[in-house]
Every structure is written in structure tokens, then in C-alpha cells.
Amino acid sequence: DISDFRTVCYYLRWDQRQDKISIFSPQDVDTSLCTHLIYAFVKLENITLGIYEENDEKIFEELIKLKETNRDLKVMLSIGGWNEINTDLSMMLSNHVSRKHFINQSVEYLRKWNLDGLDFHFYHPINECKQKLTYLIQGLRDAFTSESRTTGKPSMELSIAVPGNTEDIKNGFELDQLHKNLNFVSIIVYDYDGWSQNVTRHNSPLFSNNNSSSLSWSTSYVELSGVEPSKIVVGVPLYGRCFILEDSNNTKVGALVAGPCPSGEYSHIPGVVSYAEICLTYINNPETKFYWSDEHQASYLVYKNLWISYENERSLVRKVDYLYQKNYGGCMAWNLQFDDFNGNFCNTGLRFPLLKVLSGERDIKYVHLSHLFCF
């Protein structure tokens, strides 16, 4: 049922420190496009849920106010985003007493701010803690259910995001047990290899001859692990991966690269370029060449010696159709700030063009025909 299809939108706290074209505030969120709005990230310190900066809680309040325009919107907090195992996480998971403290404090904290749930976001597996994570999720679900019965309020939601690499999933998560106590499981089906291969690669291919690095392979594995299709939410990057070509005449997938591109003005991460920046710098540039891969059902562009794998309307329509066909539970957008949130970056006047495709809106008059086809 398409009406049950989730569009999970991440709002990054890091954007508080951006400037110039990149400024993004809660008021910029289009609540009609998201079923879930997740604030990333909050802090885990001394086995307690908390914040990084005082301004975080002010933003919680502003995000909650957005429910006035969409009363069905779920506003949640996300904890995690660690690039390696976190000592505070290990400490919190280590025993029943510390887990119980975290569970009780989390329920109290979430209700204090009128939030709708908690999300755990893992870029890497937590091999040595995976059984204890299962215990934690069970404890949180029990606590959410008990609190709901006591207060009469709707039970809070609980979700996790896991890496797309199937070995990481196998080694780090007991999905056959976890999913029973989760509202949904998001799969991070992007950034499979980073720069480790030293060649151009699609950031988030739908299909691939190397099956282990594609959306279709990762989602099938999660489904075979026992997760109900209706609980599977598929991550979509609203940004591209940018490489510097060693030979600008070799523009194929698998071409040798000298490394990642320099940090962008908006994304501030080497090799990462937001869709907004792609529009602003490359889409309408006559020197840019656009390509489509039938094998991967994915787009990329080449500008001089730069090679960028990115999502556009065409690739996202393919992905959303695939999710509908598989009866999956929705998609996850990482992240709102990287889309053309004000309609000025792509010079179309249309806000959130990529998110609109993910949420089911496909107004063809706004599609950039120049980058839907190979030149």
C-alpha cells in the first residue's frame, strides 16, 4: 500500500555551523514530503542520552512545531553516526544495569520534549556487542509499550540504520531478532567502498555485476535475514561522490582516480558534493557531460577531470519503482540539507526536487532533461 510508504528524512545538526548558501533551518522543512523527521545526532555520554550543544534542544522544539502543519509527522532523535566502535556505546551495552539506566532515562527525555521515538544509526558493525544490542532494543520496546499503556499516549517508535555491506550486517546485527521490536530498519545502501578501490564507482547503484555492492543485493539480504518487507526502509544519498580522474579521457566506471575532490562549500567533506552544489556548479555548465549506466541504473557526470556519481530524478524514479515492486516499507533521505531545499540551486523554483520523487511526486515539467540522457 503506497499510503503506508515511509519517507524518512534526516535533519543534520551539523548544519547549525554552515553559512552562505548552505544555511538551513527547521522552517525550511517541507513537512508534506516526510512521514518521519529524524534529528541527527544526539550524544551518548556516561550511558546517558544527551546533546552536543545547548542549541540542539531549541531545534527540537522548532521541529516539533512543524507537526502543526502535518499532525501525522513523527519527529525522532537519532543516536550514533560513529565511524568506529564507540566506548560510550560499549559501556552502555555492557550490562543489564547500564542498559536499564539508558532505557529509563531515554523514555523520560523523549517525553520531556514531546518526541516520537529513537533511532540508532550505525555506519559500521558492532560485532562484539551485537547480542547486547538485541537486549537493548527489546528493553526499549518493552519500556515504550509500558509507558504508552500507563499514559495513554501512542507508543514511541524505534528504528535502526545498518550498513549496506552484507558482511557487516551478518557480523554486527541479529536482524532476525531485532526486527521484531523495531518499527523499521533502514539500510545505508551507499558509500560501500569509499576511496579504497582507487577507481570510479557508483555511490548507490540499484544493480551491479558485483552484487554485494548494490541496493538490490543489500535489501534482498536483509529480507532473507527475516526482516518483513514492510519494515525495510532503503537509504538514498542526496549527494554525490566526486573523484579526480588520473586520465580525463577515461571516463568509464572503474577508471583510475588520483583521489577525492576537495571539500565543497556546502558539504565540507572531501569527495562529497551535495545535490544542491551539483546543480549550482555542474548541471547547467556547458562543459559538463552526463552519462547513464544501464547496468547500474545510475547517473554520473564528468566535468574536466572530475567524475561525480550522483542521484537525479531518473535514478530515483527507478529506485522508488523497485521499492514499490518489492513491497518495501519506504525510503530514507540522507539528508534534507543536501537537496535543493530552496529551489534556487537548480534554478527551477522547485524546492526539494529529489525528495519529491522519493515521496511519490513526479512532476516531469521540472525534470532536468539535459541530465537524464547520455551525451
Automatic annotation (TrEMBL):
A Pfam family per the record: Glyco_hydro_18
GO terms, biological process: carbohydrate metabolic process; chitin catabolic process
Source species, domain of life: Eukaryota
A GO MF label: chitin binding
The keyword Glycoprotein appears for this protein: yes
Annotated TM spans: none
Keywords carried by this UniProt record: Glycoprotein, Glycosidase, Hydrolase, Signal
Domain GH18: 5-365
GO cellular component, one term: extracellular region
PANTHER family in the cross-refs: CHITINASE, CHITINASE 12-RELATED
Protein name per Swiss-Prot or TrEMBL: GH18 domain-containing protein
Organism per entry: Helobdella robusta (Californian leech)
